[in-house]
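ok trying this again, last paste got cut off
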Amino acid sequence: MPSGTILSKSQCPSTQAERDKMSGIPYASAIGSIMYAMICTRPDVSYALSMTSRYQQDPGEGHWIAVKNILKDDCKSQSGFVFIMNGGAVSWMSSKQSVVAQSTTESEYIAASEAAKEAAWIKKRGPGTFTEN
């Protein structure tokens, strides 16, 4: 969600014409889709989801624009990894990829390459690096 985006109850429809216009908008369905993505692969959208889901009962056009911005595809994939040792995360990353992949497979190779670099760095640090003192 763009910085400075403010959503409020004052943006809810105030006339019947506005309510009729919004009745055809799949707002709740879009919120559900974002929630699924957040739970499965995109924890970075949790704040935006919490802000927009508050208005499911009576969304206005400003709320819908905010939801569309969350759903907007900017061509770069979100990818990441987490390394776990003894039940705890020791290294993780989640970010937009620096290049636009031509396919899902290529996107997965890019993410695997980043994870392999991190694994090599962790291995180079040695076995005692992540133990408590």
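PB: full thing came through this time. The two ends are 41 Å apart (CA to CA).
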